[in-house]
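User: For my dataset I need records formatted as: sequence, then structure tokens, nothing else. Please produce one.
Assistant:
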Amino acid sequence: MGRSRTTPKYVICIKNDDYPASLELRKIYRILPDAVAAKHHRLRVIDESGEDYLYPAKYFLAIDLPLSVEKALQIAS
């Protein structure tokens, strides 16, 4: 039925005060696993540049997308 995940693959941006050129509010971003960053309350996010950078975790909310939506997002990127 459902999938279980230890970490989400996607987040939605809820704050971008320090990074308005790199992060768009209410936009869905893909994240990459990074255990070291997580210990420091950071997420490794693929941002508007198309590269992955560390951002404060409090700038995002984890979202669980249906598998069909995840696949569509991967194809589109």
